Amino acid sequence: MEIDQRVYDLYDEYCHGRIDRREFLSRAAALAIVGGSGLAMAQALLPRYAQAQTISFTDPRMKASYVSYPSPGGNSGTMRGYLVQPAGTGPFPVVLVVHENRGLNPYIEDVARRAAVEGFLALAPDGLFPVGGYPGNDDDGRTLQSGLDQAKLRTDLLNSARFLKTHRLSSGKLGVTGFCYGGGIVNYLAAALGPDMQAGAPYYGVAADTASVARIKAPLVCHLAENDERINATYPAFEAALKAAGVPYEVHIYPGTQHGFHNNSTPRYNEAAAKLSWDRTVAHFRKHLA
Predict the structure, then answer these.
(1) Res 6: pLDDT
(2) Domain with CATH 3.40.50.1820 in the chain
(3) Could you give phi then psi for residue 6, rounded to 5 degrees?
(4) 204/283 Cα distance (integer angstroms)
(5) Judging by DSSP bridges, how do beta strands 92-98 and 78-86 pair with one another?
(6) What is the distance between the alpha carbons of residues 265 and 284, in angstroms, rounded to a whole number?
């Protein structure tokens, strides 16, 4: 099914909490689409996580478990995350994987496993842990995440990065990747951590506040979708500030893609762009975390 761009645009509003599921489906159904149904297109965009698993829970190349750790100043004082260890004894370079605006869903857990089979000790924190964790569906997850104290949520994710960097299996070299909301957190953490972060790979995440960019020391490889006007508009000032601060960076815009193109649980997924961007991310981490 070729999905009308107007339905993609409505889905983007829904994903970012500007309309609810009912309004998304209702407005899509009302669209006049030649040779198709806006409602069917809208329903096709809703995530199907069972289809998104690329690395099995039982893959012998890695071992996954849930871990809890202190998070002073966060939403509850404690955090929980999905820790995935590569086969072997370590120490390993480490990669924090930051979720979208709906908590630690199965797609993000799969990304953590993908990082582990590439040789990185990966942690995917669940920012919703203080309110019971990812609730099993994105609608409730989005509502829970928007209701959190956002400054304390950022503190929880900052503490997650510090926990991972100092883990007993860590080499001390930290990379951070994240998607949508999590992409913005990559840029935030780069400024907050300064020299304690060695590499970042944000996916379609809002740029860091330009006043904070001078604190960034980690080389960045930024992945943007072509059809993502709101996020992309934050990058010209960000790039100018990165240049002025002497921060090594690359920005890749993937032609014909939508916001969320790496997420293989929805039809916004673009296989070629997802593969190329992930290859670039892994190469970036291998170069800077070795």
Answers:
(1) 84
(2) 63-289
(3) -65, -30
(4) 19
(5) unpaired
(6) 25
Q: Which of 289, 188, 200 is nearest to 250 (CA)?
A: 200
Cα–Cα distance measured from residue 111 to residue 113, given in angstroms and rounded to the nearest whole number: 5
CATH code that applies to domain 63-289 = 3.40.50.1820
Low-confidence ranges of the chain (pLDDT < 50): none
Under 8 Å between Cβ of 261 and 289: no
Contacts (Cβ under 8 Å, ≥6 apart) of 34: none
pLDDT number for residue 1? 60
User: What's the gap between Cα 37 and its chain centre?
Assistant: 31
Q: What is the pLDDT of residue 65?
A: 94
Residues 6+ apart with CB under 8 A from 122: 83, 84, 94, 95, 96, 97, 112, 113, 115, 116
Residue type, 229: E
For residues 64 and 134, what is the distance between their CA atoms, to the nearest angstrom? 17
